[in-house]
Specification:
single chain, alpha+beta, 6-stranded antiparallel beta sheet, 3-stranded antiparallel beta sheet, 14 strands, disordered N terminus
Length: 610
Amino acid sequence: MNQINKNPVRETGKRLYPMLSRINGEHPFKTQVPGGRVEYKARYRKGGKVSFFNYSLAREMGLIPKTHVEQMSPELEKELLETFSLVIINEYDVMNDIKFPENEIHQNTYMATRYLQLQHPDKTGRTSGDGRTIWNGTVRHNGLSWDISSCGTGATKLSPACSINKKFYQTGDPSISYGCGLSEVAEGLETLFFSEVLGNNGLRTERVLAIIEYDKGISINVRANPNLMRPSHFFGHLKQGNYDTLKQVADYYISRQIENKAWEQTTFKSDKDKYFYLAQQVAKCFSETSAKFEDEYIFCWLDWDGDNILMDGGIIDYGSIRQFGLFHREYRFDDVERFSTNILEQRHKARYIAQCFIQIADFLSTKKKKSLSSFKKHAYLDLFDNHFFACKNKNLLQRVGLKKNHQEFLLKEHGKLVEKFRKSFSYFEKARSKKGVYKVADGINRDAVFCMRDILRELPQIYLSRESIIEPEEFIEIIKSSYAKRADLKVTDQRRRQINRFQTLYASLMKHIQKDFQMTRNQILLEITMRSSVINRYERVTGNSITFIVQKVQKVRPKLSADNLYRLSSEFANYQTLDPDKKFIPVPQPIQTPILKGLNSIVRECREGL
């Protein structure tokens, strides 16, 4: 069979981008977990162009040299298209004996992985998994292995539409939406802008490596992460009681974590120790993740099937991800058949995921599958709970603007004081509008009324100019949001006591730092003022702002080259970096247009929204 020229030899006899040639469908998961994937032949998809390429991520992955200029050349675009412009030859194509030119068919197969999804009637993972995604492969660079997948490469038999309607679909079938196997440029842009911002701010996430665009806004969105495994890759085999495949998945994942040095422990006395160490890591990771989501107001529809989050708590599937400007704790997404979890419930779903991994560890150790309820009092769940609140205490001190050594001192020596301050902070953060629950564009919500970032930013500046605490009326004036109505802002006796308590506890934290680190009051307040102004900046990305940003970028995109889009997304992410210790690296050839100003204006307007 003739194959397409996927590895063109240049006149020099050397590949310009040899690492790209390694992304050819081969992946260790295919051989190590044969029951965990469906394999497809793939063919070259014509008519594509590279609309975005993430040079910084590509350098990190070793796909391009460190010294590579951030400019798309004909040679680079050609190799990116040869590597990623693919469409699978699926069951519909085979059943209908559709012929394709042999020189367009790639030699290796590409896998769609099986994982549990609740929306499938089967509900055990036998029919579910990657419905419009293939795994392109894996590369290793500087001691780190990366997984690469592409969304929009054709309709697989693992989509909900295929399972529900009991038929195979031709790729691009207009009679079905998700089941058609395609994705859109807007989806890629949303993931791009959101993931770069969150990644810059220390959250684990998949990232967009490239967007390959076709006619009518259709695209292939290429994504990368050091490990793209999800809890749901385990849960389907757990539900089915499939010991052998579950063991293969666990062994594969553990091996990758050790290979990437993601875990401190790399040797185990027995398989039992190994599997329970996995469960312990999941408990710690998901307690930390759910605390971070809660404190950063990130809505990630966590559910026990674990199909919309990575094993390390990394964010994927940005179609259902939001970051709220306020603690809108009663927002729920309307998914037609059911409402989603809200932010406060995410912790319980994360804990349930941890409990499932305790069940998995026991099953793999004993070969006997006990009921999930057998592990509801397991020590690792106590670990989850304790670590969750410890993370929340640490997160709040970081939001206050304290340096790491000051945080550690307070947590170690004055933990109860920190706990009291967090509860006082939470009293205002969780305040809700008297308007009650109402419908929003994609679900329901009850508005939060106070912006606590504002008080954390403004309070140290005010204390620098005066010795006394501020009056309750001024406190409320600072934290009130645009959602707050007159009835929400009344200074009741209870609220007055809480305002005084908040300031007293805040002052106590500062005094302990002053005493132990031998700093003056003004020194610590000035330091916190500088740090807090970055951490709690006025303009902060929300889900709504990303939606409007993508709409704006779509309008001006005909004027943006792939390189300009890269620079725009990089500049925007830099502008939204909230780490006061992070060194700002200017983007080469910055966008000198009103576009970036327009995006930042959108962020400002949507700063308190969903």
